[in-house]
Amino acid sequence: MDFRLTEELQQVEEMSRNLARKKFAPEAGEIDERSRYPGENMRLLSELGLLGMLFPAEYGGSEAGPVAYNIALREVAGGCASTAVGMAVTNMVGEAIFRHGTEEQRRRYLPLLAGGKGAGAFALTEPGAGSDAGGISTVALEDGDAFLLSGAKSFITNGGCACVTIVMARTRKSPRRIGAFLVPAGAPGLLVGKQERKLGLKGSDTAELVFEECRVPKSAMLGEAGDGLKIALSTLDGGRIGIASQAIGIARASLSTATGYARDRNQFGGAIAGFQAIQWMIADAATELDAAQLLVYRAASLKAKGRPYTREASMAKIFASEAGNRACLQAVQILGGYGYIREYPVERHLRDIKVSTIYEGTSEIQRLVISRSLTR
Prior knowledge:
The chain has 376 residues and is of the alpha+beta class. The protein has helices at residues 7-34, 39-47, 66-79, 81-100, 103-114, 228-264, 276-304, 310-335, 346-353, 363-375, and strands spanning 119-123, 139-143, 146-157, 162-172, 177-184, 190-195, 206-217, 221-222, 266-267, 270-271.
């Protein structure tokens, strides 16, 4: 068993790491301070082929694959977590369209996503339906050769800047049937509501979407009738590996700052890096993050080989997100008072990483997924 990255994967890692450190990290604090969408960062990602990593070149993608994608996403998250979220959902939407879409849908939307002409958005969550994905109330009623979508979606990443949004809606009450629909920006009846003011990831576009008899042709349906929930859950499986990679990237950046600070900070006649209490914080965080990375590689490798990976994705997400939160909290502790102020980035890392235990399936939902796969 060889744990070394291939030469190609090393190149992806080096390219994305240099981009994140030289271009994204210096602006991340200002993006956070102003809650500003990092449009210039998304354009750079597009130019380097990092917005279409999960579909082929014939549609504008780079077809790098799940392992390379998660490496790149991890590095971008270490530079600017808000940028990483936009990158992640755009890639996730592109992959869903490639896997489940018609040829016309692929050729219409995938070049736009990969080319940075607009982000992708995934509209599943509603004010009354979060963890219970099957409980959505947005409806899609047939009207001749079209569907009319009515309802509201909440906490939608890229909601205000997407060129296309995958919308989950009920097409039948009983028996329950959910469809997935591709809704382009500017569709009649699609309204972008309030932009959420968040604890972290403040540069990420997070919006409410309202559908007032939003008319889309029947050709806008993604997959077959009734496939919506299946498409949503399979899409989230891949997204959960991405959340794990984001958490690792943020936590590694925070730990790097804390380690450097510990070497330089002198108290009681010596650097605090020489104190056992500090050493154990650093050692525990580094060990947990390395373990998390191995879980991510396993899940991404299974996905790349076309093998089942639902349980492994949930294991990667829950472990990486919770270990990452602990690492960021320890980084703030190591910096002491300086960790609590904005002169250092660790307070931002702590705010940014918190949601990794919540979105795309809470830690509690991941435990259910894992336990059910083991006991069924």
